[in-house]
Amino acid sequence: MRPFSLLVQAAAHPRPHAHGRAATLCAVRPPCAPSIRTFHKGPRDTVTSHPHPDEFSFERLGLRAAVLTAFRLAFPSVKHPTPIQHRFIDAVLKGNDVLLKDKTGTGKSFAAVLALLSQKRGAPYKSDVPGLTAPVPPITSLILVPHRDLAYQFYHWIERIHHHMTPQESLPSLAQVFIRDSTMSMEQQLAPIQQTPPHILIGTPQALLDVVQKDPKALPLDRLSTIVVDEVDYLIETVPMLADKRTMAKMERKISQHPGPTRLLLNHIYSSASERMEKASHQGKNTKREPENTRPQLVMMSATLRNHLRKFLLADSGWFTKESGKLVRITGEVSPHDPKAPQATEDVAEGTVGGTGIEHHVLVVSKHGDIMNIESAVESPAVAPEESEDMPSDDDGALLMSQEFDADLALLTSLEAVAASFAIDVPSVALLVLPSDASIQRVVKELSTYGVNAHTLDVVKDKSGRAHLMRQDLDTMAEKPTLLVATLASTRGLDLPGLQHVFILGVLDNGAVDSYLHVAGRVGRFGRGGKVISVVTERHAVKLKNGKEVQRDEPKMILSLLKKAGVKPTVYDKFD
Ligand SMILES: Nc1ncnc2c1ncn2[C@@H]1O[C@H](COP(=O)(O)OP(=O)(O)OP(=O)(O)O)[C@@H](O)[C@H]1O
């Protein structure tokens, strides 16, 4: 079996040179200024994603020599950092807190890895773990990710670089993954991390929170130098500005009563750090010299960062530094839907789909099983209809199909459309993303009855420590094209550079634009092209859990979200 790396090796090439605009670092005013609810935007560091080799080089960034040499050998196709990567790595290595937003597939996560690998490791200390007598080095950085596949992707990049490092420390001392694993007890999972604390620990917030809640001393989180939160808008829930203030208040109450694991974990880490720093300053200790008496540097990033989340992070969370000039905000090319752009509203997506060469198609499945391009898929821009009253909302509970609509027929016809497109259009590998409540197993089974080589998308680590796609012999992908099937929850941030086609079944996340942007962003990475093909069902009645019947108009929902995302559906020429 060939490793997952082969997908990565087919990695994107940088775009042809484009001149980057000079960027200015900006600092956000310390949150101790005026009111806690006041949000100081400050100037943004807005730069272009395109590389400019003369100005920007990995060599100038001060990466650790061993890391630089190994990275060059492991990723020969990655020649120059983009201006944003340059700014980002520089800011991280200087110890600043960073809030980064740039399009999907522009190398944010990859740049974070290079920066973290180059960080200095703290001095060994006497651990609290029973039975551990010799001093151990601290965990330097913690990377928080929304799902296991992304954790293994980070791990895999590090593994590839580690392979070329000299002198070579052991891989577990460089990086380890900590995710929920039902096959092992928490203690069994923790043992290798406690025995050999890694330089970089990659984990999901829930798994780490489980540990902290059971035993706050089990992991030395009080000695972390840096915390990176990838896909921050997915991990931290905030309430958007709504016209209905009562609903907003209700949602805010819900979040404060039941904060998610990332909030709880960061609250734990940063409030403990503040307490320690306060105590140390009362005792007159020099906090700079004692790692356990400082707060960890915080780096957060995503391709989509709504204003309400940004406000929460910068003004209310209390996690970012209050030190003047120590917080760097970096924003990629401004999308036409950025709040700075004319007519933009809070409700409009603040992100764009990564590649410029991505085509967006929408196929509509009729009640009678016909498949056709969405009506407005022409050269002219699609006009999105107004939001309708009868569109189901999250509060209505899960949707149930009504008697008149044959959900099974719709599903099978949609899968038939995917199977047909896959057969004629996909040379090696494609991704099919399903709604969160769909059964991957059933879809994989149905697709195989249409002769599709379909598999669950699953990145795993094997016994030798290598990360790869489960059950995938990537050697055979070109001979036997493969369709990887996943749900929305497990595709965030995933990098499959060979991917040129993403199929989306239905309208994901009830029409949330950001979800579409992230799924679509699995293609078109680093300037490559790709196709995003949504297969939706004609308007039909659905029964909600509360017994109410509403109309679900998927064609209308998708047109509305595409308009917000700033993209136009074009005709998919394989169908009428
Ligand atoms: N400077 C570079 N030149 C060429 N390729 C690069 C460069 N930096 C990263 N890449 C490649 O680009 C791909 C995308 O990287 P990455 O997953 O870090 O993007 P991202 O911005 O984090 O995406 P997302 O927003 O979807 O999480 C990877 O395959 C990586 O190897």
TrEMBL record:
**EC numbers on record:** 3.6.4.13
Which is one GO molecular function term here?
Answer: hydrolase activity
Q: Which Gene3D superfamilies match?
A: P-loop containing nucleotide triphosphate hydrolases
Name the keywords, alphabetized: ATP-binding, Helicase, Hydrolase, Nucleotide-binding
Q: Which InterPro entries match?
A: DEAD/DEAH_box_helicase_dom, Helicase_ATP-bd, Helicase_C-like, P-loop_NTPase
Q: Where is the Helicase ATP-binding domain?
A: 89-323
Recorded catalytic reaction(s): these are:
ATP + H2O = ADP + phosphate + H(+)
Q: Which positions fall inside the Helicase C-terminal domain?
A: 418-566
| Protein name in the entry | RNA helicase
